[in-house]
Specification:
With 352 residues, the chain is mainly beta. It has 2 helices and 28 strands.
């Protein structure tokens, strides 16, 4: 077990030696960034500087989540087929075997919901209509799954059988339903949170291909889902019925409302922009130039900034939420995939 250092001097010494440090002291505000080619880095939300690393004792972290009390950080580790559960005060690590290609993590209470894709292949998805896509649409493909992990016990307590290539996960505002985007067959499924029972399967291919991000509005009355291969944003009502589809920039993925539900933010990866839409009219407010392959983002807990993980430009881009301008680039990352904060904030991977 690694010792816990609470003073800035001790932290500075650790960083100077290139060692990982305890993730947080009581009252500190931090962001955790998963790096596919590295580990997890920690950003101080006061200075907006990298202050250390979190040793997950695994490779290829993508999905990342944090408990409401900030005591546990969970990462989905592609290379090892498991998740890491890290105690942020002691840096002790537990691993739970998940399966092939664990990707998306959502922490809800004392459980983690982890999507994994036994049939997924490496590399970008094939273009719709191509020969590769036809092969990819084989009906006997192994379905994706959602593993439900009890974080206290450190074990999988249930698995939900999904569609091919389960992707994003969201929860209804009342906590009774789990909503999953299924990338390969272009569907959105709804499951009972207690039993995992499939309540609804919604094909969305008529609106666009490859649903990825999914987010509920703060009032619970609507949802938005990004359709990556069609450059679209699908808007659904509280019962997950489609009501409208709008154009976005190229390859949208991460999506979130702001706290008031007045604006929708979309990370358009190949557009190299964070797009801002009016949630009521769905008119675009602004394109904010960012970095390369920016997938996921989080507001800071005070809602003053957005931190956007840009994988191909190896940076976290800081955006002022009032000015809607980039104010800083934290460029010491190793293909960052996702980002969450403590205290928990709104973002494409999390919500308070």
């Amino acid at each position: 077990m690694k010792s816990f250092h609470s003073t800035r001097l001790a932290t500075a010494l650790l960083l100077g030696l290139g060692l990982s440090c305890a993730a947080q002291a009581d009252g500190e505000k931090v962001a955790y960034v998963s790096n596919q080619d590295g580990g997890v880095t920690i950003i101080d939300l006061v200075t907006l500087e990298t202050r250390g690393t979190l040793d997950i004792e695994a490779k290829g972290p993508r999905g990342i989540g944090v408990t409401a009390d900030g005591k546990l950080v969970v990462t989905a580790n592609k290379d090892d087929g498991n998740i890491s559960i890290v105690d942020t005060t002691t840096n002790q690590v537990r691993h739970v075997k998940i399966g092939k290609n664990p990707e998306f993590v959502r922490v809800y209470g004392d459980r983690a919901y982890v999507t994994y894709e036994p049939s997924a292949k490496s590399g970008p998805p094939p273009k719709p209509g191509s020969e590769a896509a036809k092969e990819d649409d084989d009906e006997d493909k192994i379905p994706g799954r959602i593993a439900i992990v009890d974080l206290k016990k450190g074990k999988v307590i249930r698995e939900i059988i999904g569609k091919p290539e389960t992707e994003g996960v969201e929860f209804s505002k009342d906590g009774k339903r789990m909503i999953v985007t299924n990338e390969s067959d272009s569907s959105i499924t709804v499951h009972d949170m207690k039993t995992g029972k499939l309540l609804k399967s919604l094909p969305v291919g008529i609106y666009g291909e490859r649903p990825r991000g999914i987010k509920v509005s703060p009032d619970g009355q609507s949802y938005v889902a990004t359709l990556e291969m069609s450059d679209k944003l699908l808007v659904l009502d509280s019962q997950l019925e489609p009501v409208r589809v709008i154009d976005t920039g190229k390859a949208p993925y991460g999506v979130s409302y702001d706290r008031d539900g007045k604006r929708i933010f979309v990370a358009a990866a190949k557009q190299k922009a964070l797009q801002v839409f009016d949630a009521a009219t769905l008119q675009k407010i602004k394109d904010i130039p960012t970095g390369d392959r920016c997938w996921h983002f989080s507001f800071t807990p005070d809602d003053k900034n957005i931190l956007l993980a840009c994988g191909k430009s190896n940076e976290v881009v800081v955006i002022d939420t009032d000015k809607l301008e980039v104010t800083k680039r934290i460029g010491d990352k190793e293909m960052p995939w996702g980002i969450v904060t403590y205290p928990k904030a709104l973002g494409s991977l999390d919500r308070p």
